[in-house]
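Residues determine shape. Take a concrete instance:
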Amino acid sequence: MKEIKDSKVRVKRKKTNREFDTLGITMELEKSLSIGDQLELERKKIKDRKKRRIYKLLIKISILAFILVIATFIIHINKKYKVNSYTQELIRSDSEINIIYDKDNNLVFTPYRHNKKEAVIIYPSSGVEPVGYAGMARKIASKGYKVVVAKVFMNYPFFAFDRADKIINSNPDKNRWYLISHNTSGDVAVKAAASNKKIMGVVFLGTYPSGDDLKLINEPVLTIWGTNDGILDFTKFHAYKNNLPTNADFTEIVGGNNTNFADIKMIAGDNNARISNSIQQDRAAEHIYKFIVRTSR
C-alpha cells in the first residue's frame, strides 16, 4: 500500500479590496449637502416672499386707512349748516348799518353813527358760514360797534388761529377788540386773545376754554349759555370754570339752546329752544354790550 504523503495545499485567497472610494463618497455628501442648502435657501425665499407680501399688504391697508381718515375729516369739516331763509335780509345795508364782504370774505357790519372805539370779531362754529351770524352781528352793530364775522378756511375753527390778527391789522383805526366765540371756536378764540394785546376780552356763547390762558393774563371773560343747551357738556363746563379769571361773568338765558346764537338749522345733538333765535340773540347782545361797556373803561 503506497503511502501517500500529505501535501500542503496552498490556497491563495483572493484579496478583498477594503479601500473605500473616498472621492465618490465626498461627492455624494457634497451633493446631499448641496440639495439641503438649496432646500433651505428655497424655504428662506418663500418665507421672505411671504413677509414682503404681508408688509406690502400692511402698507396698502395703512394707506387706505389714512385716506379714509383724511376723507372723513374733509367731509366733516366741509359740512355746512343751512342758514335760515331770512338771513339774506339781515345782510342788506340800511340807513344805520353798512354791510359788506371785505377782501378776505369776512362779513363786516359798520354802524354809520355812534361808531365806538371798540370793535368785535365773531369766530364762527364749525360748519357755519359768516352769514349765519348776521342776526347777532347786526344786533351788536346797532349798539355802535363795528362787527367782523370771520371767514374761516373750510369753515373749521382750527384754521382760524391767525384770523383775528389779520382782521385787527386790516382795521388800524380800532385799537380795542372783543372776541366772540360760539360752540367749537372757543379754544381758538382763547389762543388769539392770549397772543394779541389789542384784544380786551372774550365772550363764550355755549362753549368754554380747555386751557387757562385767559386766567394767566387775567383777560375779562363773559360766558353765556342757554338752559336748553344740548351741546354744552355742563359737567366739564363747571370743571373748566377754574380755567377762567376769578372775575369772569356767567350768564344763562332761560329757554335758549346752543343753535339759536346763530341763524342756522338745528345743530346735531342740540335741544329745542323755548324761545326764538331773535329773542335769544337780543338777550345775548344786551349782555355783551354791558360787558364791553364795563370792561373797556
Observations:
- Residues 223 and 235 are 15 Å apart (CA to CA).
